[in-house]
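Try this one yourself first.
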């Protein structure tokens, strides 16, 4: 009776042991299976993380190469599509070309080689690292240089005449860009055989590769060594697809590092499977977070402006669309301020791009302080900035911000030892509750900004729907004016200029008139500013001069006066064009007086003096027009050596106001006579004014008293007849 319980107990014990063993075996099997599963999962995760990191490195490396080439291309565009370059390069000013292209290759982060070639690929200038080179571009660059030349040289009228790519040079691998030298607007009135092209090269050496690695967080980025074979590589090829080199990097293997960290814990603490899974999750999360952080850093670089540190145009549009979406969700209004700097180009041209860059950084820092952290601030162009924000009181906030920005630009900028004074024009547009898209908002603000520039600058202008119609009308005017100039459909009329003593016709002033097809006459006050702002003034001015010179060929006893726009005067080849007109029309230059206002002389004294010297070498006379309407500086009268001064009609009309006006007129004429400058008075409408002007010392008179602007046939009718319009010699 005792054994039974003992057996039973033994059996039970064995059963319990068997059960425990089975349980342990089952548990061990489960642990082993779980361990195998976890280790397998870990291995796969590690492999996936490694592939993902390598893919990121590949994309980042590819992006860095594109950025390297893109920076060169953007720099090339700035230097090639440049009004000054279009003037001086085609004028053959070798000193200017070397100063602004060749010497800029010294220690430059943007390009180390600069070449200027003509359309036949003859070298006009070649510099590398600040010194002239002796090699030929055909020998120095690989065959894809000719492909770049073909792409840029054969670009159609709607295409940008530029091309860029990587190529092999005697020095190594370089990003090379080639562009047609032209005006900033893209216009270029130069025959194809005479065109000039600018080539920039930026060599990608080991030092620059290391800099790319540091900038884009790519571990061990380098060129492949001889015989080195690896899957982690990005090819660099030229335009013909030829392999130039390969960039490789060190795989960081974030998955392997995570696996190595958690594997000992799995082996040592199988009972803590849950903790193991937690550690696995944390490790995977950290890996993903690192990848996300790297991607965010790359995205930040792609959307940031390198010079100012603000958002660039791409980043701004992304942020603006998010802001508009937020306004749509929350019911808030979105405001956009679009700023364009007034006078920045003059500072850039006068002091150079380095000073201009410092000025941009100063403006960006000031705007960042004014705007604060609640608004979007971006540099969207060379000298253009944009500010966007949400507000429930959009008009009040925008007005306050406009006042503070305009006040900020009232103060001059101190840049080293230089002081630059610039302003800004602001266009403001709103998107009520986010109903207007970001793209449309930018268009409206840009339109308002241009309206602010056209109506005085240094001010803010809100978008109004009628601006669309005004812009459309202006665009149509520009198109019709361009067609009219090309077809020679404009008319040249002449206003008589009389001798002050005899009231005899001694000369004419040529003026332009436009009878727009389908619309009728257009005032010069309308189409002349359009011609100046669009670059058509060069063609228009030379057309008027040419037509007037042809006409006076049959009036040998008369002199000719022609107005010159500052836009024409800025052209370095202007004197050459004027000389060509005289040669073609067989006009004696001494019969012609070019009339210019004082504004350009005040803004660009040195260039104005050089341009005047070239014109005077032709034998043409120069008159200062509208004296008394602006600064009327005696200093400018003395230093520029004008051949004649024209008194503004405001001084003439003031004669009816009494003795003080007469005294002012006499003093003005006496000033000119003391400098041996003869005086013409314009705007003469009464005989009393004519007599007073003659007694004051004016030797020539012009105005409606003697005739309005008239055709050549009407001038023929009054030649030799003394005074038209019934004026009498008193």
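Now uncover the answer:
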């Amino acid at each position: 009776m005792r054994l039974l319980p003992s057996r039973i107990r033994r059996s039970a014990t064995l059963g319990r042991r068997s059960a425990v063993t089975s349980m342990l075996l089952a548990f061990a099997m489960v642990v082993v299976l779980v361990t195998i599963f976890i280790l397998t999962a870990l291995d796969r995760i590690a492999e996936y993380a490694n592939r993902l990191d390598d893919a990121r490195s590949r994309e980042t490396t590819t992006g860095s190469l594109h950025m390297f080439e893109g920076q060169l291309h953007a720099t090339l565009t700035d230097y090639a599509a440049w009004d000054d370059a279009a003037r001086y390069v085609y004028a053959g000013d070798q000193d200017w070309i070397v100063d602004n292209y060749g010497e800029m290759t010294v220690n430059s982060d943007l390009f180390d080689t600069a070449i200027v070639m003509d359309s036949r690929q003859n070298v006009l200038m070649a510099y590398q690292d600040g010194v002239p080179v002796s090699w030929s571009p055909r020998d120095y660059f690989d065959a894809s240089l000719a492909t770049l030349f073909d792409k840029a040289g054969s670009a159609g009228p709607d295409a940008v005449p530029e091309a860029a790519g990587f190529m092999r040079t005697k020095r190594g691998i370089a990003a090379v860009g080639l562009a047609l030298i032209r005006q900033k607007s893209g216009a270029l009135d130069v025959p194809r055989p005479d065109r000039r092209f600018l080539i920039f090269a930026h060599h990608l050496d080991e030092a620059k590769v290391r800099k790319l690695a540091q900038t884009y967080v790519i571990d061990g980025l380098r060129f492949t060594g001889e015989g080195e074979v690896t899957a982690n590589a990005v090819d660099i090829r030229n335009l013909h697809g030829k392999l130039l080199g390969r960039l490789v990097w060190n795989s960081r293997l974030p998955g392997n590092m995570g696996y190595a960290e958690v594997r000992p814990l799995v082996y040592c603490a199988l009972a803590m499977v849950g903790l193991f899974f937690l550690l696995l999750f944390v490790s995977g999360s950290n890996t993903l977070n690192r990848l996300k952080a790297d991607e965010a850093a790359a995205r930040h670089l792609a959307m940031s402006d390198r010079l100012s540190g603000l958002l660039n145009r791409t980043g701004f549009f992304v942020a603006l669309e998010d802001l508009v979406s937020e306004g749509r969700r929350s019911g808030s209004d979105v405001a956009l301020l679009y700023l364009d700097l007034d006078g920045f180009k003059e500072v850039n041209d006068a002091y150079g791009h380095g000073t201009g860059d410092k000025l941009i950084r100063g403006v960006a820092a000031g705007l960042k302080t004014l705007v604060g952290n609640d608004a979007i601030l971006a540099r969207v162009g060379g000298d253009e900035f944009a500010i966007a924000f949400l507000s429930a009181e959009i008009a009040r906030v925008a007005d306050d911000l406009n006042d503070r920005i305009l006040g900020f630009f009232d103060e001059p900028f101190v840049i080293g030892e230089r002081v630059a004074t610039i302003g800004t024009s602001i266009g403001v547009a709103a998107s009520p509750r986010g109903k207007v898209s970001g793209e449309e908002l930018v268009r409206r603000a840009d339109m308002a900004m241009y309206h602010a520039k056209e109506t005085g600058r240094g001010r803010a202008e809100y978008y109004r729907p009628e601006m669309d119609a005004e812009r459309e009308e202006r665009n149509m005017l520009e198109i019709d004016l361009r067609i009219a100039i090309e077809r020679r459909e404009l008319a040249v009329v002449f206003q008589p200029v009389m001798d002050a003593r005899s009231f005899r016709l001694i000369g004419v002033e040529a003026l332009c008139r436009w009878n727009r097809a389908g619309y009728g006459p257009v005032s010069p006050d309308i189409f002349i500013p359009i011609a100046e702002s669009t670059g058509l003034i060069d063609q228009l001015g030379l057309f008027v001069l040419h037509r007037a010179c042809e006409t006076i060929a049959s009036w040998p006893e008369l002199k000719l006066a022609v107005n010159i726009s500052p836009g024409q005067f800025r052209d370095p080849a202007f004197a050459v064009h004027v000389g060509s007109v005289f040669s073609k029309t067989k006009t004696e230059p001494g019969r012609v007086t070019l009339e210019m206002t004082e504004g350009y002389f005040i803004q660009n004294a040195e260039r104005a003096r050089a341009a005047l010297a070239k014109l005077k070498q032709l034998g043409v006379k120069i008159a200062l027009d509208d004296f008394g309407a602006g600064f009327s500086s005696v200093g400018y009268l003395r230093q520029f050596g004008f051949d004649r001064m024209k008194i503004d009609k405001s001084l003439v009309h003031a004669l009816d106001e009494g003795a003080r006006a007469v005294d002012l007129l006499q003093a003005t004429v006496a000033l000119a006579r003391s400098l041996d400058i003869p005086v013409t008075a314009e705007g003469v409408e009464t005989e009393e004014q004519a007599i007073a002007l003659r007694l004051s010392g004016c030797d020539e008179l012009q105005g409606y008293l003697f005739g309005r602007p008239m055709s050549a046939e009407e001038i023929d009718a009054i030649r030799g007849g003394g005074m038209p319009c019934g004026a009498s010699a008193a």
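Discussion: The first strand starts at residue 113 and ends at 118. Confidence is low (pLDDT under 50) at residues 1-14, 725-730.
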